[in-house]
Write a structure and sequence with these properties.
By secondary structure, this protein is an all-alpha fold. It has 6 helices and no strands. InterPro entries: Marvel (IPR008253), MARVEL-CKLF_proteins (IPR050578).
Length: 132
């Protein structure tokens, strides 16, 4: 929702050249929402869904921060200022989402490494060295 509001603000402002970033973020968020709601993440195990969500959060936070600074400092119209302020709020929201998703990603990667043959091989080697 916040990405869509920022997109609308950029369309109405002199900083319309920045409208593509919130639009892409909005569409990516809709896709991931649809994927999780329709359980595509359980059907397509080859895609690392937590990693995709993590990368989306990191890039969105960085891009929103950069374009918000540019919109607030370079343009003087109210819509650009509003888009910049909403962009700073979105940066904070995506940073919080980044932290939450990072914890999920670490859990996902630990779970994946224990299921792999390499993970079991090192566990077997550890148990052999403990019995010595």
């Amino acid at each position: 929702v916040l990405s869509f509001i920022i997109f609308i603000c950029y369309i109405a402002s002199l900083a319309a050249s920045f409208m593509m970033a919130p639009l892409l973020e909005f569409l990516l968020a809709l896709f991931l929402l649809f994927a999780y709601a329709s359980k595509l993440n359980e059907k397509f195990k080859g895609v690392h869904w937590p990693l995709a969500d993590f990368l989306r959060c990191v890039t969105a936070a960085i891009i929103y921060f950069a374009i918000s600074i540019a919109a607030v400092s370079k343009y003087n119209d109210g819509a650009s200022k509003a888009a910049g302020v909403f962009g700073f709020v979105a940066t904070i929201v995506f940073a919080i989402d980044f932290y939450i998703t990072f914890n999920d990603l670490v859990t996902f990667l630990k779970q994946g490494s224990s299921d792999s043959p390499e993970g079991r091989k090192t566990e077997d080697e550890d148990s052999d060295s403990d019995s010595d």
